[in-house]
Amino acid sequence: MKLWAGVLVLGLGVGVLGHSQETRVGASEMAVEDGPSYTADGQLKLPARYREWVYLTSGLDMSYNPKATAAGHSMFDNVFVNPAAYRAFLKTGTWPDKTVMVLENRGAESGSSINHRGQTQSSEVMGLEVHVKDASRLQGGWGFFGFDNGVSAKLIARPAECYTCHEAHAAVDTTFVQFYPTLRGVAKDKGTLSAAYLKEAGGK
Ligand code: HEC
């Protein structure tokens, strides 16, 4: 009799587990996409919820995007990375395959606050560029994508100045980790700063 009761409890337990698994699948469908995804013709889809990814920096007037600077106004750029890649970077000091980094440009606006000297960011996004690490698709492991619409973008083909500048001056694996305050120290500790960057920075 006792044995049967045990089986019954076990049965109930399995039932509960099964149910919680279903809930978990449901939750992962809701989860923020984490990694690159492409259209059938090979364009990168804009990660729709990149604003829920890990924030790396806001640069002011760092943009090399002519469209972003043409207005003659100051421009902020905000950089985000997918959470799985961020966690891997904290462990290793470099980026895993399927890293996606988003650079978003917004105009600097003054006079919008009671603090007259201060500058805030425009609601309008003035430019969106994405840097993807995907060894199975991209020559050299990494590719750049410039979004003219908020939907999908073609790969910027090599040679292009995006590749030349990032390969020559970026501190870790063609990304500008020297300007990402939560990651710069990690790269230094793990010894992953590139030789070219160390030479350029004069040992700093
Ligand atoms: C002259 C150098 C230079 C050129 C050319 C350049 N970039 Fe960058 N890029 C930078 C710097 C510097 C940063 C760091 C921005 C910051 O700190 O706010 C950066 C950051 C980025 C990031 C954030 C992720 C990362 O790799 O660190 C993306 C995405 C990006 N650039 C895309 C592009 C694209 C697309 C092009 C070509 C259309 C381009 N860049 C051309 C210097 C450059």
CATH fold category name of the largest domain: Chalcone isomerase
- Element string (H = helix, E = strand): HEEHEHEEEEHHH
* CATH architecture title of the largest domain: 3-Layer(bba) Sandwich
Bound molecules: heme C
The class by helix and strand makeup works out as: alpha+beta
**Low-pLDDT sequence parts:** 1-26
Radius of gyration: 22 Å
The total domain count is 2
DSSP E strands, number: 7
Helical proportion, percent range: 25-40%
- Could you give the order of strands across the largest sheet? 2-3-4-5-6
Distance from N terminus to C terminus (CA atoms, Å) equals 75 Å
Overall mean confidence score, pLDDT: 86
**Count of runs of 4 or more consecutive helical residues:** 6
Main β sheet profile = 5 strands, antiparallel
Pick out its properties.
204 residues; alpha+beta; Chalcone isomerase; 2 domains; five-stranded antiparallel beta sheet; two-stranded antiparallel ribbon; 6 helices; 34% helix; globular; disordered N terminus; binds heme C
Topology overview:
Elements: H1 2-30, E1 44-45, E2 54-60, H2 66-69, E3 75-81, H3 83-92, E4 99-110, E5 119-133, E6 142-147, E7 152-153, H4 161-169, H5 181-190, H6 195-201
Antiparallel strand pairs: 1-7, 2-3, 3-4, 4-5, 5-6
Helix pairs in contact: 3-5
The chain binds heme C (HEC).
